[in-house]
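Hey, I was hoping to borrow your eyes for a little while. I've been puzzling over a protein and I'd love to understand its fold better. The fold is given in discrete form, as structure tokens running alongside the sequence. I'd be grateful if you could look everything over and explain what you see. No rush at all, and the record is pasted right below.
>
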Amino acid sequence: MQGVYRAHVDRAKVDTAERLNRRLFVTGLAIGAVFAALVVVAIMRGFGWFTVVIAAFAMVAGLVSAILAHRRRRALGLLIADDGIAIAVGPDGVQLAGAPLIPWSEIVFVGVLDDRRRTGTLRRLPVIGFFASTAVRAGSATLLCELGVRDAPSLRDAFAQAPGGERVTVFDEFDGRRRGLVPLLLDAVLDDASAHQAAQFVIREAERRDIPARIFDRIFDYFEWKGPMIDHKWPVQKGTQ
């Protein structure tokens, strides 16, 4: 596609994220395995429930850390290709690295969650700040761009073996088809200026085609906005909680 806008991968940032995710994955599995063994030993030897609960909690935390590292690595694959172009936006649609073109006619909304201010606050806190900084360096986006698509199953099929294709989320039937979300972890693979520019450009191009598009800095406001466009049951679920 002849892109109106092309954003190039920040290779140093990606290399850091991939290295950290590998370490977190291996470390998480190791912690999970060690504490799983401790849970078994504690139960067999009749240790107190407090010891069992603490060991079980540590086991789960380790495994969750490994799972998140794996998911981050796969999600980053949506924006990493050999040519170094993470995303191209043009008159025909949005082209992701190593993935099929997503035509504008298949995009129902573009939502951007700018979580940089909240994350910056967390990173300045004792202890919590260390884990927040590590997560960001490992590829947890603070500037997330999501494309709402009309036919998520077809898009997942079109991805074939493209890295990150399984990260296309599929929801229940909506107007005869199953809508979905394509998450783009922009600032995880782009330098900060390019990530902000890419988000602004996708928003502007969507608005030019009368596609709902907005930037949010509050996660619950964002959920309230996008929910009804991907899930018919959203208002009912919200009202019954």
Remarks:
- Strands lie at 5-8, 85-90, 93-96, 101-103, 107-114, 143-149, 169-174, 177-185, 213-216.
- Residues 236-241 have pLDDT under 50 and may be disordered.
